[in-house]
Each structure stands twice: as C-alpha cells, then as structure tokens.
Amino acid sequence: MRKGQAAIELLMILAFAFLLLTPFIWQAVQTSQVETNLIQARKVVNDLASAAEYVYAQGTGSVARVRAKIPPGVIWNESYIGKPSWANQSIEPREIQLRVEAGAGYNDVWKSVNPPLLGEWPEKQGLYVFTVRLNEDGYVIITPYADISLSPHEHFENIKAGDNVTFPFWITNYMDITVYDVNITTAGEIASWISLSNSSVDIAADERVALNATITTSNTTESGLHYGQIIVTWGNCPMLRLSARSEVQILLC
Q1: What is the mean pLDDT of residues 143-169?
Q2: Are 133 and 180 within one domain?
Q3: Segments of 57-138 assigned E as strands
Q4: Are 206 and 109 in the same domain?
Q5: For position 99, what pLDDT does the model report?
C-alpha cells in the first residue's frame, strides 16, 4: 500500500515539475525556430547580394540564378528589394531586406550593394529560384520564378526569306523531384513557322534538358521583324499548371 502511494506521489511530483518546465521548454523551442528563420533569411539576402554584385561586374545582359529557401515568419509588407515604398525619392535603391518575426518583435536582415536594384519578394515562404540580371539601364533586376526555367529568355535570328535556321534552347528543373509531362508549344505571329524537336519531356530533379527549335520561312514572307514565343507548361497535379515563356524574334531581309 505504501509503495503504491509513493508511486502516485512521485507521478504527481513529476507532473507538477513538467507543468513548471513547460513554459521554459516552449520558449526554448520558439527561440530555436526564430534563430533558424534568421539563419535562412541571412543566407537568402547574402546570396542575392552576392549575385547582384556578380552580374553588375559582368556587364549588361549578364544573368545569375539563386536557389533560396524563404523562411516562415517574414513580414512581407516591410521587406523589400531596392528600397522601401515609403522611402524618399532621393534614396538610392541599393538594399535587400527581409523583416523576420522574432517573438514579440522583429529582426531586420539586410545587405547593401553597389548596383541599383529593382525586384520583388514572392510573398510566400518556400523554395524559389531567383533570376538576377543586369539590364541596359544599369539596374540589377531580381525576380523570383517557379522552379522550372526556360532559357534563353530572348532569342533573335536574322535570316533571308525562304531560309530556315535551327537554334537550341534549354529547360531546367531546379526542384528535388522529377517533373513529368512538360509540354512545349509555340504561340504568336510566327508560331506556325517554328517546329520543335520535342513537344513533351520528363525532367529529373536538378536536370537540364537541351532541345532544338527550327524556324522555316517561305519565299513570299515579307521582310521585317516578326515575333513568336516558345511556351513550356507543366504540372504533376492537374490543378497546377505553370508556364515559362521565351520570346523569339526574327528579322527577314
């Protein structure tokens, strides 16, 4: 009887001790999560800043891609690429910032860079691949896009009427899973002039697939600048249909 009573008393003491420790355990878990979020935020900001400096040094038209995980707890309306919307016009847009929740407050993770910036955050946590490129006006453009890319983003050909030309393009899967039924189609004014080496492919995780497109013109085609698009759509789930586009231009002479 005494042993049973002693066991019950021990359980009561342990339960009481656990209740006393629960707030401290919860606080430790919360602190650990905040630190993890800040580490991820610092990596995103630093990687994008490094990519911005790189393309700026390489010159107009240079492009870099940054694969980054946006952590939870970001305060999106107070995060920015370039400068905040409320900043004075005289302030140059040369900062990358994420504001991250930290308990009852927040922490600003930011980095200043040499080139002027234009860009946007995706406004949702998760894994993204960012395009970082230098435009003709000297601005580094930073934009998030889906985890499959089509390159080049623009392609130009100068050919004679009645001739044809074949050029390569690439589809890259940055995700950690194989993507099935990636469909490639054409659109625009010269859609009927473009034939593709493949109309559908499967792309393994972290794989890049090279394809070809051939533009064929007739002898009666009028000279001038003509436009079209190569469009890539995919989605393992029928409810998810995403796309990437590449502008195709030809000058007939």
Answers
A1: 81
A2: no
A3: 63-70, 80-82, 95-102, 105-112, 117-119, 126-134
A4: no
A5: 92
